[in-house]
Amino acid sequence: MLERWRWYKRELIAIGLLLISTVGLYTINVPTLSQLTHSQLQLQSNQSQIASLQMTLRQKQAFNKKELPVLGRAVPKSPDIPAILVRTSALAQTAGVAIQAFQFGATSSAALGALSSFAITLDVHGTRAHIMDFLYKLEHETRLTTVQSVSLSGSANAQISTSILYTVYFEPR
Questions:
Q1: pLDDT digits 0-9 by tens, 2-37
Q2: Which domain holds residue 125?
Q3: How many domains does the chain divide into?
Q4: Which of 74, 138, 145, 171 is packed most tightly, with the most Cβ within 10 A?
Q5: Same domain, 92 and 67
């Protein structure tokens, strides 16, 4: 009987140790499982952000390939006054008006990151319809320009003289 008692005692000790180790492993694994779940959620969130950033990068690259040349023509890196004179003369000729005088204003220096500009005053002679066509073409020019003011003089049916003040923009160096 003593022998049997020792055997039960060893079994009880083994079962107790097994029970203690099982409870210990469970308490260790519970935080580990919650950490694993949290890590998986974080991984999914990071993968989603990566996919979004990759899509944004592809859109930016497509924009750069397609739109930057257009922006470069609209806002060149220098004033390029000879090109402005040639282009404005061509616009006037296609609109049917005659440029009587060009007058360039001073260049305005822009703050860092902003555009520089300069004003041009044109004295133009033509019919009202031709002058309106010229203004439309000037405002819709490839290069970024804004018409500041227009002053008309003369009768409505005949040739009239017009003074046009507009601003041309460029990117400062």
A1: 677 677 777 778 787 777 777 766 666 665 667 777
A2: 81-170
A3: 2
A4: 138
A5: no
Tell whether 24 and 88 lie within a shared domain: no
Tell me the C-alpha distance between 99 and 109, whole Å.
Answer: 28
pTM above 0.70, yes or no: no
Which of 139, 144, 141 lies closest to 87 in space, CA to CA?
Answer: 141
Digits of tens for pLDDT over the chain (173 positions)?
667 767 777 777 878 777 777 776 666 666 566 777 788 888 888 888 888 888 887 787 776 666 656 565 667 777 788 888 898 899 999 999 999 998 988 777 765 567 788 888 999 999 888 988 998 888 888 888 888 888 888 766 678 889 998 888 887 76
| Residue 69 burial (CB count, 10 A) | 10
User: Would you say the C-alpha torsion 144, 140, 162, 125 has a positive or negative sign?
Assistant: positive
List, as one string, the DSSP characters of 106-121: EEEPPPTTSPEEEEEE
Side chain identity, residue 97: V
Both 86 and 34 in a single domain? Answer: no
Cα gap 146→106, rounded to integer Å: 16
